[in-house]
Amino acid sequence: MEGTFWALVPPLIAIVLALITKEAYSSLFVGVVIGAMFVAGFNPVGTMDAIINDGIIPAISGNAGIFLFLVILGIIVALINAAGGSAAFGRWAEKNIKSKVGAQLATFVLGILIFVDDYFNCLTVGSVMRPITDSKKISRAKLSYLIDATAAPICMIAPISSWAAAVAGVAADTNSGLNGIQLFCSAIKYNYYSLLTFVFVIGLILLKFDYGPMAKFEKDADKGLLGGLAKKEDEAINPKGRVIDLILPVVVLIITCVIGMIYIGGFFGTDLWGGTDTKFDFIGAFANTDSTVGLPWGALIALVFTIIYLVARRVVSFKEAMACVPKGFIAMVPAMLILTLAVSLKSMTSTLGAAEFVHDLMEGAAGNLYALLPAVIFVVACILAFATGTSWGTFGILIPIVTAIFPTDSTLFIMGISACCAGAVCGDHCSPISDTTIMASAGAQIEHVNHVSTQIPYALTVAGISFLTYIFVGFLPKQNPVIGIIFGVVLTVGVLFALKYIFKPKKEA
User: How far apart are CA 373 and CA 173, in angstroms?
Assistant: First the structure.
C-alpha cells in the first residue's frame, strides 16, 4: 500500500466521516486506526504499536510547544474575561461599531494586522472580536470563516511570519540565485488564492449576502441563535473592567511573541538551532526561527505581565487570577485533542508514502502540460493539503518537485512555487483535519465540523477563480503578474455579483 492511492485513504475516510457524523474526535481516531492497520499490514499488535508509538506519542511530543502556547493563551483569555476586559471592549464596540458590516470589516482588519503566526492569529482575533460579532448578531460560523480567511493567507504573503520562514527553509537550495526569503517574496505576486481570498471576503461583506450552509447560520444569528459552543455556566461580569484590560495584554502578547521568535532565530546573536553565535538580521531571524519555541517563550512573559497588571489594578485578586489557570487549560483541551489526532493521522499518511505517490503523479504530468503546470500544481497542492491537513507538509513535498520540473531561472518556476503555497492554503482551508482550521474553530468557539462545512463553499469558489487565473497567466507573454492580479480581481468581483443575484431571496428581488 506504500506509495499508492491507499496512502490517501485513511485521511479521506476521516474527512468523510467527519462531514457525515459532524463529530471530529471519533472520525479522526477511525482514520488513525485505519492508517495504522495499513502501516502494520493488519497485524493487531503492530497496529496498536503504530497508533501509540508512531502516532499519538510523537504527535504530543512534537507539538508540546504549540500545546503550551495554547494553554497560556487560554489562561490569558480567561484572565481578561475575569477582569471584565472583554465585556468592556464589547460595550465600547457597541457604541463605536454600528453595523454588522463594520464588525466584519474590523475582524478582517485585525486578522490582517496579526500576520506573525496563524495559530496566534486565530486565537487572538477570536478572543478579541467574539464579543463584538456576538453583539451584532454575526454567527460564530461567519466569525470562524473571517478568522480562517485571514490567518493562513496573510501569513503566506507576509515576509515576516512563521510561514515565510517555513517556505524559505524548504526553498533555500534551489540554485535560483535567490535565498529562501527572496524566493518567497518573489512568489507573493503569483499567490492568487491568498490575494483573491482578501478580495472575496471584502466583497462578501460589502455586498451583504451569504450562500451555502453559511446562509442558514446567518439567518439563525438574526434570531439570536449564534451557533457557538454551549456555555457551561454564566459568570458574573466584572464591573471594574476597562478596554485597556483587553488591549494592553494583547499588545504585550504580540510584542513578546515577536521578540521571542526573533530571539530563537538568532537576532540577538544566539542561533539556538544552529549551535553557533551567528547573528541574523530581523528577516533572517524569522527565517531561522522555530515558532513552537518562540511563541511559548513570548506568551509566558505576557502571562506573567497580565497577572501582575490585573492584580495591581485590583480588578482581580491573586486567588481569582490563579483560578483562571485551570479554566484556560480546560478551554483548550478540545483543540489540543483534535490537533493530537490530526497530527497522528498525518504521521500515518506520511509513513504510507503519500509524498512518493504525489511525486510520481506530478512527474507523469510534466511532459505535455508545461504552460498549464502552475494550475495543475495548484490543484495537486489543494488535494494533498485537503487529504493530509497540513499546508507546511504540502509545500514541503511539492516545492522540491517544482524545482525539478522547471528551470530555476524561469518565471514559471516562481509561479510553480506560488502555486504550491496557494494550493496548500486552499486545501488547508477545506480540510477538517487542518490545524489552522481547528484553531479557527477554537478561536470562534464553534463546533469544528460546522466551521468546515460553512467554509468549504467559499474556499472552493476562490479556488476555482485562482485555478482559472493560473491558466490565464500561464499563457501570457512573460507571465505578467500585474495583468494576472487584475484578471483575478475582476473575475472575483464578477463571480460575487453573480452569486448575489443567484442566491438573493425572492422577497428582496
Answer: 21
